[in-house]
């Protein structure tokens, strides 16, 4: 009888291991449930074929059944548009957008200066933007001149030529029609004159 009444010795290590195993099992079950729910929400994994979400996904990928269309008489792809000849309906061999001789004759030749103004009318004191082309004049300094009292007078502005082109702006307070040009003082080459209404 005395042996049965003795308390059992405590085993703290064994109790700790049992508690740790129980906690690990509980955490594992929670993580497994989270993984299963996440897989169903994201649509990962196999499907049982009966859920409404799977039916919706299948319907979004629906392709209509192909049907035959009427065959057109013309070409399916047009690579080059040509104007038909009025005599026999055959296409012409020359392109329709040929550059005119006037456009090619307007471009300046080497050693000539072509000048233009961006605006032909400005307010008094407003900038007058000018630009031009000077083929063969790379690095030249062009001086602006204004027509005044029957002669060309130097205007206090100059511009350099880069890659055959130049552009700058000038100011004037003289109202009325002003005529400007540029000149290469090294060889005396002058541009055409431009007219700008000021004021």
Automatic annotation (TrEMBL):
Report what the protein is called: Uncharacterized protein
Disordered as annotated region, ranges: 64-111
UniProt lineage: Bacteria, Bacillati, Actinomycetota, Actinomycetes, Propionibacteriales
Keyword list, A-Z: Membrane, Transmembrane, Transmembrane helix
Polar residues: bias regions? 89-111
Transmembrane intervals: 12-37
**Any keyword Transmembrane helix?**
yes
């Amino acid at each position: 009888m005395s042996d049965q009444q003795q308390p059992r010795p405590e085993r703290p290590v064994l109790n700790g291991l049992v508690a740790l195993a129980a906690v690990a099992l509980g955490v594992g079950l929670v993580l497994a449930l989270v993984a299963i729910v996440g897989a169903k929400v994201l649509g990962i994994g196999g499907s049982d074929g009966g859920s409404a979400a799977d039916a919706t996904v299948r319907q979004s990928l629906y392709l209509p059944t192909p049907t035959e269309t009427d065959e057109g008489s013309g070409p399916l792809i047009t690579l080059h548009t040509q104007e038909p000849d009025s005599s026999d309906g055959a296409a012409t061999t020359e392109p329709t957008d040929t550059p005119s001789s006037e456009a090619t004759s307007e471009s300046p030749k080497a050693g000539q200066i072509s000048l233009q103004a961006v605006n032909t009318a400005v307010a008094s004191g407003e900038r007058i933007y000018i630009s031009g082309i000077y083929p063969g004049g790379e690095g030249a300094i062009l001086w602006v001149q204004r027509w005044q009292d029957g002669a060309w007078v130097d205007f206090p502005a100059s511009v350099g030529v880069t890659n055959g082109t130049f552009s700058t702006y000038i100011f004037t307070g003289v109202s009325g029609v002003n005529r400007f040009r540029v000149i290469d003082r090294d060889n005396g080459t002058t541009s055409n004159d431009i007219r700008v209404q000021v004021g």
